[in-house]
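Q: For a teaching session next week I want to show students how multiple molecules come together into a single three-dimensional assembly. I've collected the sequence lines for a complex. Could you give me the predicted structure tokens for the whole thing so I can convert them for display?
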Amino acid sequence: MSVHLLQTATSVLLRDPTASLGDVAKAAGVGRTTLHKRFPTRSALIRALANDALDLVESALSQVDFEADDAIEDLVTRLLVLEPRVSFLTRFPGLEKDDVRILALDPPLLDLITRLQGSRLRRDLPAWWILRTLQSGLYQAWEAIVAGRLAPLDAPRFVLTTLFEGVGSGVGAADRT
Amino acid sequence: MSVHLLQTATSVLLRDPTASLGDVAKAAGVGRTTLHKRFPTRSALIRALANDALDLVESALSQVDFEADDAIEDLVTRLLVLEPRVSFLTRFPGLEKDDVRILALDPPLLDLITRLQGSRLRRDLPAWWILRTLQSGLYQAWEAIVAGRLAPLDAPRFVLTTLFEGVGSGVGAADRT
DNA sequence: TGCCATGCGAACATCAGTGTACCGTTGTGA
DNA sequence: TCACAACGGTACACTGATGTTCGCATGGCA
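A: Of course. Below is the structure for the complete assembly, covering every listed component.
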């Protein structure tokens, strides 16, 4: 019940950061007063959403075996359903700029990427670029799912093949072997 | 000078859509009153920013030879510097949902992509996915440039190689020839 | 049945953003 | 030097969002 509240609030505020608390309450099917009881101020709500998102993402990351060969595949499937929360953490105005917990999410992922640049990942692009590319893929996949353009079960394949192989057919690609 | 105002307003509102007009005016180095003289209301400012962005993007697109083999390369270099404007059109809350001019931007690009799916682009991904992937690449490249992480002259290469070839080294890739 | 907790709506005060009017300053051209 | 336009700042009214209080309804639970 409260989980539903946090979910809806996240998606409403993500779609329109200027949405009023009344809009949020209505979307969550809850009274504006009740919302105030749970979250005394607007920024308290924002912080609660961020903390909840952090809990979920940290929990998801902790379940990934970063040593496994298919760590990235695992990451994609786990993070895909959490994409609204991740987006909230990374794109919401007034967040992230200094939050220690948010900033702490990247390093393990960057480590993983850097390690894989010895095998599966190309070395001529920086790790942060590869990470952002992965995140972009997850983001647009989720957007497409919400819009009804993409079947949820197709999403991981779309993200992973695009990430690893790109969208080129390979006919004009430079030989990198 | 007015061009600078539109640029600054775009980037300020893009970074924080809840920014007050006072913030916008200050960032643009102009008085709030003067801002009001030029744009009587907040939504007038938003519409002006959207129209200006549309003019710039349409103009850029009109200069691209969609029949050329390197149409995508041309697109990337031209759209990269316009990325804040494109982002404003596509991501700003309350825009796009019905604007005819904005919706008219996609079809020619989708046509181009669909055509190239006969040669340079893979056929097992829908055209809209490829378009979004391209746009994501431009977006994150611009972000990286602004953050100082990416040299502007490197950006097109990053975007294009990632788009066409992906970030995989190719060692584990399925053979698609 | 009576009690208590929880949620909701109405009403109110407050505040920040917005829009407007007025005035002083600057600078440019006749 | 004068007139005029453009700009910025101050001050004020208005509006919508916000936060608070109060009272009522609902729904377990003893």
